[in-house]
Sequence to fold (472 residues):
Amino acid sequence: MAAPYLTPLFSDNFTRANVSPLTSPWAIDTAGEASLQIVSDFCQNVGGANSQGVQLYNETLPNDQYASATVGATFPSAAALNIMARTTQNAIPFFSTNWPGYKLSIYGSNAYLYCSTGGLLGFVPIVPGVSIGDTFTIAIVGTTVYLLHNSTQLAAVTNTSVSSGGSALATATDNSGNAVKVSSFVVGSASATPPGDPLDDPTLIYLGQVVVVGSAPAGDSSPYLGHVHVITNPRAGASNPYLGKVTVLGAAPAGNTDPLLGEVVVVGSVPAGEADVYLGSVTET
Amino acid sequence: MFYFLVPTAQATMPDGSTVTGPKYLSTVLNGLTFTAIPFGAEGLDLLSLAASNAALAAEPDVFAFPTDLTAKLLDADVTNLTNYLSPLNVPTSQLAAGQTWVAVLRQLAQVFLAAQYAAAQNGGQSLFTVTVSLKGGKPTPSAALVTTTPGTFDFTKVDQTQTVADTLLEVAAQFTAPIKTLNGGSL
Fold:
């Protein structure tokens, strides 16, 4: 099972002075329920035994989004951690009925996936149980809802009920007052495919236009070079052939006219199995 | 993958919240990993389990799909499934002998997804009891259903004189992506 690709956009590690409730971008829902607080650099709900708290994390997210929470302390066996995505507040009490959106609930050593329309979407036991440092994630890409544990996908299910919204965090204490303590909360964008090649970023240095002139040798097709990005090394995982490194010089060497395209370093030999590369000739425009 | 149609029921979850979930959650499904595709707000789940479950299959209000989903429906299968689905307002006119079970499952899942979308757009209400008027004894789409905001599904071009079931069948075909179930499975 391929997990979705997650790109963090906003986060809170709760490493600051104790505060109750959490302040902006955290917000209390309009139903006026109990809130969250920071105690000794952990987030937990306000209140004692059998208490619950929830707050919205009011950062704008794309529709394909995720929300993650990391467990910061021993997880009580009868307490709950709830992470919401594509959620909106509409004055429905979180703990009394179905909160709008999608919810991942960790209770003891079990994970539940919910939707406000239709109810329970999935159940997965956490094996061997919840440990300090574990991260739980709910991600939605298009109409697929994902449940992840430490970046491993535990479940994915199609659902079409909710198409947009933001994130929220809720926790509940057990009947002895033991609280779920969260050490970080991260939200961002989610994708079923790898994020775009960073080298396709149009804001990167544009070297210039490369025009291939002349003609390719017999038997070779005319190459299209496209535009050239300046990089210092081949990207990790890039397959051969690697053309080499293009170095932009600060000034043209003596005897050369400006503008100078740069210096093209071609690797010493063609990788095994690859056809000989014909570059054509390159001129400035 | 093992598929079941299971009625839903209200359940109190460990954190005290009340949710809708598959019936038998605390009995024969207790502790079992599953994913569910609800039939909107209509009280039925398409459940996928990692293993066969004779106890669940034996429940009188559960329909268990066969292990071999490439097998084809016989006339008796069509009758049995129709008799199960009709009282639950699930469309059945698409069922035919000779279809594979996996084709039937995908059509049902598409219908369930269409019902989810429409229900969510109409306040999470049942399409049959709240947003639908009755004409000639057959539930037909109300204005609320037909004007459901187009998105994953587009209900705006459906014929308001046809039944809700036919509407769901027609619109359900708009969902062409793989439908995710348990353990990376899809329909």
Notes: Chain A has no helices and 19 strands. The CA atoms of residues 241 and 274 of chain A lie 7 Å apart. The mean pLDDT of chain A is 80. The longest strand of chain A covers residues 182-191.
